[in-house]
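Internal ticket - ligand job 445, glutamine:
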Amino acid sequence: MITLKEALTKSKEELSEIKSELENLAKASNLNAYIGFESSGEGVPILIKDNIQVNGWNVTSGSKILQGYIAPYNATVIDKLNANGMMAFGRSNMDEFAMGSTTESSFYGITKNPHDLSRVPGGSSGGAAAAVGGGIAIAALGSDTGGSIRQPAAYCGCVGMKPTYGRVSRYGLAAYASSLDQIGPITQNVEDAAILYDIIKGHDSKDSTSADIEDGKTVINENRKLTIAVIDNYISEASSEIQKAYSDTVKALQDAGHTIIHKNMQNTKYDIATYYILATAEAATNLARFDGVRYGRRAEASNVSDLYYNTRSEGFGDEVKRRILLGNFVLSSGYYDAYYLKAQRVRHLIRDEFNAIFKDADLILSPVAPSVAPKIGAVHDPLEMYKSDMYTIAINLAGLPALSLPVAKDNDGMPIGLQLIAKAFDEQTLFDGAASMEKAVKYTK
Ligand code: GLN
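stdout (structure tokens):
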């Protein structure tokens, strides 16, 4: 597949041919990565996760409850694509309302991993990552609340980047957990990720959490020598093959002239509990709006309370219901202080611990997930699934930018991704380090 950088040099006619070619390839593929083939305007086709509003499209967050809902406006990121020689083309499959790590919970069925059709692509942006990793999309936009860009990118052998919280407007992104959600690029390489990031970033008065902090054009300098921290007590939970890829990468980074320093983190044991309290609390609140009155599908009912009850019972899948119940529980009177408030406090400790490391280091290197992509159907227990987010969620809790890129394959040929994490609003250093790491590890597709 041509890269985003190459695609930007093509004429209008060539791009419209590329678009039809992509559509044919996607329709012939058995990945179930695309769930729609709508397009907006003209330009380089960018695949869009099904939770980002594109005017006139049936945008559903992978849910039955939003069947029939037509987005009445563009998300800010879509306006930015359109203004920069790109267009939205195709909706990508995802876990329902972005809650999941495998893309098995979508109303549209399971998406498959392009490296092994019996495995999941990761999630929740699994359709986007499978399409880019499988050569049926040039680049895609996903969303990352607790790893949903970086983890599927790692499972599918592509690059996934989560910007600093506030860097990219969330206007028009269906809210899952508003204090954690960020839109970001999924691409074939680091340079393309920087190109797409530059286009979608920037202050937006329509998103009250959008940061008004200048960020010039990213000019990647892969020759910069950086100090990279490895968290020694962080990697023991990862599989032995991931640990090996990790130590090989550390060696490659040292050979490339970077300085490696060793650190430990004490609060990582609280990451999963903190995230699943805060994310479910925010989700329960955000999803209250789907009641059959304003959006999407409406169930049969003879009075208004049955209308809410039936619409939500029929429209939401099991995982979404579980999260709404958990979220309402942690927010309920009597439990609010014990869970929600405490989790907010722990969130500060987690962020402070990262900031302390960034006093000595430019970047942190970490696994993205403890294993490669699991088999479809293998993760039954929700807690087991939540545990697989152990390396990604703290970065959202701390609001930091991070980029996942493939570094090696395991013995079964499955991609292994590692992530670099940077200080808040230091995406420039993130891209510099990632470009150097991409060169140093010599990953072959
Ligand atoms: N797997 C995590 C969750 O289910 C993260 C999902 C995401 O980033 N959207 O909440």
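Auto-summary: The mean pLDDT is 97. The radius of gyration is 20 Å.
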